[in-house]
Design a protein that fits this description.
five-stranded antiparallel beta sheet, mainly beta, 172 residues
Length: 172
């Protein structure tokens, strides 16, 4: 699995990290040149490559975790006294939404993918310029049809998605 992952993700080496964000608890990143795509009769500008992560992950810089997957489920700092009313899925409500702002400001300064490392169970380390490290680490033994850890796809080529699952690699 390690070599198959590395051969796919190495296509991102040298590309710019264009943007990062979330949809519910799916963490997404866009890499490469910006292109125009039409979806649902609407044209939008997106990055050529998309990495969607639905397992545990973290972004560190130096010896500090900047943001991680569990931050989705914690309230932003000024909501801590209102935990009984906390809705993690509302955009802007959680710690991820708060913490990711510092990275977004930094990536606008041309953050580049420097290299990748992968492991035999679908884990991935992405070393980025400016000292950032994105670590993706599947942390469940589930191996059913719903255990999709992360996927990489090229919007420009509209090729099948490279999907890392609890059962190995799939192309969708």
């Amino acid at each position: 699995m390690r070599e198959a992952i590395k051969s796919k993700v190495d296509k991102l080496v040298g590309l710019n990290l264009r943007y990062i964000g979330r949809a519910s608890n799916l963490f997404w990143l866009g890499f490469g040149e910006k292109i125009l795509v039409t979806r649902r009769r609407k044209t939008e500008e997106v990055a050529e490559y998309a990495l969607h992560i639905q397992c545990s992950w973290r972004i560190a810089k130096g010896n500090k975790i900047i943001v991680g997957s569990r931050d989705f489920y914690s309230p932003r700092t000024d909501l801590e006294n209102e935990n009984e009313h906390f809705e993690w899925d509302v955009q802007g409500n959680n710690r991820f939404d708060e913490r990711i702002k510092s990275i977004i400001e930094d990536i606008n300064q041309h953050t580049i993918v420097e290299r990748f490392e992968s492991d035999e169970v679908g884990g991935l380390k992405s070393f980025l310029s400016q000292g950032y490290l994105l670590e993706v680490f599947p942390d469940t033994s589930e191996d059913d049809e719903y255990s999709k850890f992360w996927r990489l796809f090229n919007r420009k080529e509209d090729s099948p998605h490279f999907v890392v699952t609890g059962n190995g690699i799939e192309n969708e």
